[in-house]
């Protein structure tokens, strides 16, 4: 169990799940050529936009704000695994975002990620994948009911409450409090499929956020990597995310894909089971508020380990894991 616990911790860090930072995952920073390096979003235009009115307008504005405001903050995270305090920061250097989260109590954890504004989907050569904030807002509106609640004061700032309710029982809902001035998220409550609060993430101090006086790079259009496996079932609206899932932590033998509906996210890991190497016990595991379903399967007489993680109902994760299929190997000459 100790080895299994360490492996799940490693997978959780790799998947980017956990709600430590309340912005969307950034597209991984990769080398760029000079011809593709000029597509940017000018953050200064946010100051000229009209104030949001509808719930979906507030949601989209919060996504742009997460990319464009430079800030430092203190926060508290309250979940099933206890209470943790964090120091957060978001900066932009040469058009590339840098986010840092550092736990201030308990085991020392330091998380850092750099990247650009991601796309909603992979490039298919026919239709350009839009930048995440605009595309995600439209996509999410099909699977959640968004509403505006009463205004409150969070971290000594006026806040607007956004209620996000799933239209089915296949995903969790949220309540998000947005800064009335910048639209930065100040508080998030994650609600399970029974409407119970399973995690609260709240900014306690936000130090004078400043709008970036320049542009932030948009990610290049990415071609999807080839994997011999794929899930035959996903909850409606979950889209394969065009983010770099490679990591020195697990090497090339571990396949990793991320799927999202714009709010909820699941990560899928597939790797061979080799003699003498650490493996997880099949079944349901809990890591904080995230759940993981583990399956051992045989593919062409080779044992494989499948792990599906996310802040989703256990039955959904299990159905995704059980639906995994492998492409049939083509015969030579065909």
Detailed description of the structure:
This protein is mainly β and 334 residues long. It contains 4 helices and 21 strands. 14% of the residues lie in helices and 42% in strands. The chain is globular and about 60 Å long. The termini are far apart.
Tell me how many strands there are: 21
> Nearest-angstrom radius of gyration?
20 Å
Largest sheet geometry? 11 strands, antiparallel
Quote the distance from N terminus to C terminus.
46 Å
Instruction: Please report which band the strand proportion falls in: under 5%, 5-15%, 15-25%, 25-35%, 35-45% or over 45%.
Output: 35-45%
Helical coverage, percent range: 10-25%
The average pLDDT value, as a whole number, equals: 83
> What structural class is derived from the secondary structure elements?
mainly beta
Count the helices. How many? 4
Shape: globular
Summarize the helix and strand pattern as letters. Answer: HEEHEEEEHEEEEEEEEEEEEEEHE
Which residues form runs of ≥5 with pLDDT under 50?
A: 1-7, 13-25, 30-37, 330-334
Concise account of the structure shown:
Helices cover 14% and strands 42% of the residues. With 334 residues, it is mainly β.
Keywords:
334 residues, mainly beta, six-stranded antiparallel sheet, 14% helix, globular, disordered N terminus, disordered C terminus
